Amino acid sequence: VWGATTQVVNVSNDSEDVPLRVFVEFLPAGGYTLWRESQETLTNKMVKTQEILPKLNNELERVVTENGTVDQITAVFDKFFLNRLEKSKIQDNFGIQVIGKMSAHRGLLNTKGLEAVTHYSARHINRVLNKELGMSAKKFNRLLRINLVLKKLEHTEMTFSELAAYAGYYDQSH
Predict the structure, then answer these.
(1) pLDDT value for 78
(2) Looking at 89-129, which runs of residues are DSSP E strands?
(3) How many Å apart are CA 81 and CA 84, to the nearest integer?
(4) Which residues have C-beta within 8 Å of that of residue 89, sequence separation ≥ 6?
(5) What is the signed CA dihedral for 52, 44, 31, 33, rounded to 10 degrees?
(6) pTM above 0.90, yes or no
(7) Using an 8 Å Cβ cutoff, are 102 and 140 in contact?
């Protein structure tokens, strides 16, 4: 399992030692709902699957050892993730509302704005988000904005300056 990376990571060709390497990308805070570890715990780190998701690791090892097909391996992931998601749904309707508002505003709705639209204090908003996502409103907004830029990079003719402005980054160093 690789956490969010803030730097370039080279994946070595170690197929002799690692028979299967699968990359699963989560949206901001998506991993937290599965293993309840904060974003910081895994940032720029690679953790062996058996350390953080032992049940998934054991099932994958079994399927790979039996020369499972790609469809069989995919089925293991589907079953595991769907099972985990069912158990870890966000329980707090207020949390769902806040996350929805933040996402709808592309990560540009700051804490004061959240207070205004929800009529709750920043402290309560952050308490709920920390419980449900493992991070504060500010960090979640930052992740939403970064993901917005990454998605736009793939399908746009915008310059980096235009992308930065679109995502709410206005300051430039002088």
Answers:
(1) 84
(2) none
(3) 5
(4) 33
(5) 80
(6) no
(7) yes
